[in-house]
Design a protein that fits this description.
Elements (H helix, E strand, L loop, with lengths): L3 E2 L3 E10 L5 E8 L3 E5 L7 H16 L2 E3 L2 E3 L7 H12 L13 E4 L4 E9 L2 E5 L4 H15 L10 E3 L7 H11 L2 H12 L12
Antiparallel strand pairs: 1-2, 2-3, 3-4, 5-6, 7-8, 8-9, 9-10
């Protein structure tokens, strides 16, 4: 079960050892709203700057915005599963990076085709793989699995956000991972076993 800290909310995701900043432990917390907070208990002098970078990267990569010190989606919904993915991807970047929204088209090494996601409005997205229906459906399934988007009746090549609002930056981010969902889940499982969030007294 996720850890809970009264002051900053419920912990929903964890990077136990950040390789880009002295192996700090960084976590994502959820507060009512829903709103999200990137936080570390570490007292390392570079920790605050790293937290600011990850927060900024989540805005660029996931299309999130700041509400005070908290991150929110413009649509007002939580998109809990997707927010966790955005956090994990942001933490992979070094603080010297310039995070930008990713395109909605990507080269697929597995099929040798370009995978394109198209916004159809009202939060609905269609995946195309240059005529290869099975691959398009597999990638759309990956998007749904990574984001928590529900299936679209009769259209396995589509996925839709329940909020009914577009999330192009979020889809662009998830598209790169939707090509190989199994590898993503294995990677996250391995990361989660590397450590747990320590209390302030346990970190330097």
């Amino acid at each position: 079960m996720p850890g809970r800290t009264t002051d900053i909310g419920r912990r929903i995701e964890l990077v136990p050892m950040d390789p880009h900043c002295h192996n700090l432990t960084i976590a994502l917390y959820q507060q009512p709203g829903p709103r999200y907070l990137v936080h570390s208990y570490s007292g390392h002098p570079e920790a605050a700057d790293r937290i600011r970078f990850v927060t900024r990267a989540m805005q660029a990569l996931g299309g999130m915005r700041l509400d005070g010190s908290m991150l929110v989606f413009p649509c007002g919904e939580g998109h809990l599963l997707a927010s966790r993915r955005v956090f994990l991807e942001a933490c992979k970047l070094p603080s010297t990076a310039n995070p930008e929204a990713r395109p909605l088209t990507i080269a697929d090494k597995k099929s040798g085709r370009a995978i394109t996601t198209t916004s159809l409005g009202a939060g609905l997205y269609q995946v195309d793989a240059e005529g290869e229906a099975a691959r398009a459906e597999a990638v759309a399934g990956g998007l749904r699995k990574l984001s928590g988007m529900p299936a679209v009746d009769g259209r396995p090549d589509r996925a839709a956000f329940s909020c009914g609002q577009p999330h192009d930056a979020l889809v662009g981010l998830l598209l790169t991972r939707a090509l190989n969902v199994r590898a993503v889940l294995r990677e996250e499982e391995m990361t989660a076993t590397r450590g747990v969030l320590a209390a302030p007294s346990a970190q330097k």
